[in-house]
Amino acid sequence: MVQGTSSGAGKSLITAGLCRIYARRGLRVLPFKAQNMSNNAAVTACGGEIGRAQALQARAAGVEARVEMNPVLLKPLADTRSEVVVLGRRDPRLTSLSWTERKPALWQVIRQSLATLRADADLVIIEGAGSPAEINLPDVVNMRVAREADAPVLLVADIDRGGAFAHLYGTWALLPGTDRERIRGFILNKFRGDAALLAPAPAILYERTGVPTLGVVPHLRLDLPEEDAASLPDRGARGEIEIAAVRLPHLANFDDLDPLAAEPDVAVRWTDRPDALERARAIVLPGTRNTTDDLRWLWESGMGAAIRARAAAGVPVVGLCGGYQMLGTFVADPLGLEGGGTVPGLALLETSTELAAGKTTRQVRGRWRSRSAPFAGLAGRDAAGYEIHHGLTRLGPGAECLLEVEGEPAGAVAGRVWGCYLHGIFGDDALRAAWLAALRSAAPPALRWNAHLEGELDRLAVAVEGALDMDAVDRMTGAWAVSS
After folding, report:
1. What's the DSSP call for residue 265?
2. Contact 45/68 with Cβ under 8 angstroms?
3. Which residues, at least 6 apart from 333, have a Cβ–Cβ distance to it below 8 Å?
4. Left if phi > 0, otherwise alpha if psi is -120 to 50, otherwise beta: which for 150?
5. Residue 390 catalytic?
6. Could you check whether the bond before residue 264 is cis, i.e. omega within 30 degrees of 0?
7. Residue 478 backbone phi and psi in degrees, to 5
8. Going by C-beta distance under 8 Å and a sequence separation of 6 or more, which residues neighbour residue 360?
9. What letter does residue 278 receive in the DSSP assignment?
10. Where in the chain are the domains?
11. Which of 250, 389, 390, 423 is flagged as catalytic?
12. Is the pLDDT score of 238 beyond 80?
């Protein structure tokens, strides 16, 4: 099990690296995280939602993502309210309960999911959440899971932020003795510089805890999805094309923009300031877990007026999922799913949306329909992605259908403004190339996104394997015994 001294320590990527390492050795590896809090979700083949990090870890392991890999997903709706997704589906009853009331039911789901994965794998690599030393909270995701699986624990600290040795020692010291004994190694993550300068701190830490430091992982710049919007960086080189991505309060599925940021001449800049849109070559409104609240925020913050002004000046504007809904004339919430009422949209597309009780979560294949530039060359081609949304968007006479899914419009375009429901759409190399070509004066070599993503996972695995004492890790996991 990989635990961390805090959120953002790097648990998710260390876990993904270990998944790729052991999968390349021929083991059947499955990732697991009991409970995740993130609006950055993926959709499995059965249409269930799980955390984006677990989908990436599954990819690193070379297996298909399953809902058991992340049986509980909390999707924040507001500061004190979250949607509870259990085994990939929203659970209205548990969503309405307090954390202490829902805990017993969730633990049974967690136990069963873990048992299911363990029965189907040579090795399950478990990721914790937050810190195991959050002594104010009842634990169903860190040491309780480690005890259930009888798993040794690697504890990760982010040394780039400072205080890593205090974080490691303090976490260890706050745990009860039986849980301390499960910590079998410390990992210092995101290190810049000469690791020799860390001495004698690891030795002092060992003297006080009996836990060795098993590795110092360098600070890696990788084009891999971030799990939390709180740590979302600007991405990409400072090149010819600067794309402004709107940092919505309930931002979700922000890794949709990763394929753009990986292009050699594209910079994706996350912003919530109207003045930052002035220099952008294009603007993207990403997904959100609360469309109506974030649409109100667009108007109150001045971002809505600024986006409309830039669109009027000819700047392309793109909306993905909730962002697509915002581009229309209004979003209605008659059932009060997101607070109720009708909120005026940006009116950049002649579309309208009504939120409905049913939630669409599915992997889909559609077909491009628009014959307008820059999509004319795509007309008739397949489009693939996944959907996570409430509601239905209707197209008016002034909006051309961009693409269809099962015979119904799933996107619209009008001039240089377009949007769609499909997440992952910028991973379509042809679509991305066509759209960027309209923004470029000269096109660089085309990027193949899926191959690039696989290469980044390989880079991660090589870095983690080179940084850690893998003999010690192998002994903990029993990987030698399994592979032999």
Report:
1. T
2. no
3. 292, 339, 340, 341, 342, 343, 354, 355
4. left
5. no
6. no
7. 75, 20
8. 387, 388, 389, 390, 421
9. T
10. 2-223+455-483, 241-440
11. 423
12. no
Same CATH fold assignment for domains 2-223+455-483 and 241-440: yes
Q: What does the alpha-carbon distance between residue 392 and residue 406 come to, in Å, rounded to a whole number?
A: 14
Detail the DSSP E strand segments found in 175-323. 183-191, 213-218, 235-236, 241-246, 251-252, 266-271, 282-285, 287-288, 317-320
- The superfamily in CATH containing domain 2-223+455-483 is P-loop containing nucleotide triphosphate hydrolases (3.40.50.300)
Q: Give the chain's length.
A: 484
Q: What is the pLDDT of residues 110-139, one digit of tens each?
A: 999 999 999 999 999 999 999 999 888 778
Q: Give the residue carrying structure tokens 């967690």.
A: 110
- In angstroms, the Cα distances linking 405 to 256, 363, 409, 411, 435 are 19, 11, 6, 9, 21
Which residue matches tokens 């209205």? 92
- 34, two tokens: 């009991």
Task: Give the model confidence (pLDDT) of 443-456 as tens digits.
Answer: 566 678 888 889 89
CB of 16 closer than 8 Å to CB of 457: yes
Q: Tokens representing 326?
A: 């915002």
Q: Is 423 a catalytic residue?
A: yes
Overall pTM surpassing 0.85 (yes/no): no
Decide if pLDDT at 484 tops 50: no
| Tokens at 205, concatenated | 């830490």
How many Cβ atoms are within 10 Å of 443's Cβ, its own excluded? Answer: 12
- Tell me which residue has tokens 């600290």: 157
Residue type, 302: G
Catalytic, out of 19, 321, 389, 420: 321
CATH class of 241-440: alpha beta
Contacts for 69 with CB less than 8 Å, ≥ 6 apart:
30, 31, 32, 33, 50, 54, 57, 58, 113, 117
Name the strand (E) or helix (H) holding 83: strand 81-86
For residue 446, the SS3 value is coil
Please, are residues 9 and 452 in contact by the beta-carbon 8 Å criterion?
A: no
**Could you please report the per-residue DSSP string of 319-380?**
EETHHHHHTSSEEEETT-TTS-EEEE---SSSEEEEEEEEEEEEEEEEEE---STTTGGGTT
Per the CB < 8 A criterion, the answer to whether 250 and 294 are in contact is yes
Tokens of 148: 């259930």
